[in-house]
Amino acid sequence: MVEFAVVGPVTFLLLIGLLVGGLGVFRYQATAYTAREASRWAAVHGTDYALETGNAAATAADVYNQAIAPNATGLQLSQLSYSVTWNTNNSPYHTTTVNGQTVKVTNTVAVTVTYHWIPEAYLGGMSLSSTSVSVMSY
After folding, report:
1. DSSP string for residues in the chain
2. Average pLDDT, the chain
3. Which of 60, 63, 83, 118 could bridge 125 with an S-S bond, Cβ 3.0-4.6 Å?
4. How far is CA 51 from CA 76, 107, 111, 138, in A?
5. In this structure, are residues 130 and 28 in contact, taking their beta carbons and an 8 Å threshold?
6. Handedness of CA 100, 94, 135, 117 (dihedral sign)
């Protein structure tokens, strides 16, 4: 009885800690997956996509509605924030002049997804954030 009184609570706390930590890792992986998928989706829905299909090029709201929200499995959307940034615009290339010559430079899109996670053990909250950068292409 005495041994269990000493070992039991420690074992219980370790098990709860492992469980809550595992849920945190799951939430971070879901956040990273959502950022990767949103970045990929935004990269292929730029101006070339708009020219070929007749649909509008992707906006930040489109990235959220078409890629972030559907892929945020296991995350509360009310705790999720995002930002979508194209380095110049959402076409595959932009031109610049180097030594008097015009050169094509690829554009990129960066998607950052941040999730405010409140652990199930109510130990305070923490922000889980992931950024994914993709080269614009279609």
Report:
1. -HHHHHHHHHHHHHHHHHHHHHHHHHHHHHHHHHHHHHHHHHHTSSHHHHHHHSSPPP-HHHHIIIIIHHH-TTS-GGGEEEEEEESS-SSSEEEEEETTEEEEEE-EEEEEEEEEE--TT----EEEEEEEEEE---
2. 92
3. 118
4. 35, 17, 23, 11
5. yes
6. positive
What are 129's two structure tokens? 């954030």
What separation in angstroms does the CA of 94 have from each of 11, 41, 47? 59, 20, 12
Backbone phi and psi for residue 88, each to the nearest 5 degrees, phi listed first: -130, -55
Query: Which positions ≥6 away from 64 have C-beta within 8 Å?
Result: 38, 82, 84
Q: What is the pLDDT of residues 9-23, one digit of tens each?
A: 999 999 999 999 999
Q: 84, 109 in Cβ contact below 8 A?
A: yes
The full length of the chain comes to 138
Residue ranges of domains in the chain = 2-135
Here the tokens at position 59 are: 């906006």
Q: Of 29, 36, 39, nearest to 117 (Cα)?
A: 29
Distance CA 27, CA 88 (A): 31
At position 69, the amino acid (one-letter code) is A
